[in-house]
Amino acid sequence: MSKASEKAYRELRERLLRGEFNPGDRLVEDELATLCGVSRTPIREALQKLANDMFVQQIPNRGTYVMEISETDQEDLFELRAVLEGVAAARAAKNADEETLALLDKQVARIDEALSDSDGYQLDTFLDANRRIHSLIIDMAGSARLRVFLQNLTEQPVLIGTLQRYSMANLKRSNEHHREIVEALRAGDSSWAQSVMVSHIHAALHSFNREK
Amino acid sequence: MSKASEKAYRELRERLLRGEFNPGDRLVEDELATLCGVSRTPIREALQKLANDMFVQQIPNRGTYVMEISETDQEDLFELRAVLEGVAAARAAKNADEETLALLDKQVARIDEALSDSDGYQLDTFLDANRRIHSLIIDMAGSARLRVFLQNLTEQPVLIGTLQRYSMANLKRSNEHHREIVEALRAGDSSWAQSVMVSHIHAALHSFNREK
DNA sequence: GAGAATGCTATTGTATACAGAATGGCGCGT
DNA sequence: ACGCGCCATTCTGTATACAATAGCATTCTC
Q1: Is the CB atom of residue A1 positioned under 7 angstroms from any atom of strand C?
Q2: SUPFAM superfamilies, per this entry (chains A, B) (predicted)?
Q3: pLDDT at A118 over 70
């Protein structure tokens, strides 16, 4: 996927995440084309990709519609993510190398620092470091397929924004989980790593539900 | 995805599964277009879909290549499938309704019949019933995402043909697993259903490795 | 006045033409 | 003779033109 398609994809994805389109809205290719400043061809490619990500739904000969997400869908998402990230953590424990572990330590420390920063904790730093941590672990698991699946899961509209509602206490606990996971990985204990990771994701769901 | 795109997708997918293209081969859009009797546009859509299915790999400005599958990839596939189908079975146990359970019984019986048929067991019947069983269970789990993921997993080139190598004994054991899973589902016992399902998939991997 | 059928319009699906990027070969220079 | 660079060819990426389909409204008939 090259320049124009990529641009259209990013643009539309961004707008979908921002909620600029409402669930159920029809997306007309021509309008999107002018909106993104490209022709319909790359728009169609972008829409196909978005359909794969389950951001939109394509109905043959009838158009593309913004996906409507149900109540249960969100729990689905978390459950699947918990299971798969659990598997990733377990596998990562077997493949752990000190180099990557050091990188993980660094990200955990970054979050510590951001959270202890008294003039308002820096959420962006947390989000970035958090993303990197999970990404590194998934990479350590060494399965391309797992990576693809989890990427799909973590980039869902329902989830974006979720993290932003965490309270300070939850963020701190979240990072304690990270620390424990890294410890488990370093110990090469896959059950430990897996179970902490599963807890970690479930805790996130719980926090979210309580605070929304 | 409509007529021509669909046709191209099916055609190419079929050929890929048949092994008509070798891993690493470059797929030139024009050639595929004449091969499928459509223009490049639907071919490009089909290729994008195939790339999502991880049948091919697209490199920007350089073309599309038939995916090369590594040794570990196959075990990955089975492991992920085991985990996800396990989750599906567990969830299905909670949602089980007698109507669907009856359909499952029917498919199990179909396989029994096919396997006891003395003039050569009918593999096609087994494959079809097997597919339906797994499909019904996934549907009972009631998660669209899970369905999509598992569909991707079960339709990989590595897996197609796997089932066809099973020995009679393995097929019989496989159906015993099916029977037990249905029993667990009927009992509403999600742990039981999950663990049998996981065993079921792992047994399949093992059979395959031994007989290849 | 109600229902069905037909034509109109808007939008998707497909083909083709054109532009730009990448690779391979050829020639030129050293 | 060997290496570097340029040109040509080939293929991908994008735009646009054309075809087909679905939904809607209008009209005609009963």
Answers
A1: no
A2: GntR ligand-binding domain-like, Winged helix' DNA-binding domain
A3: no
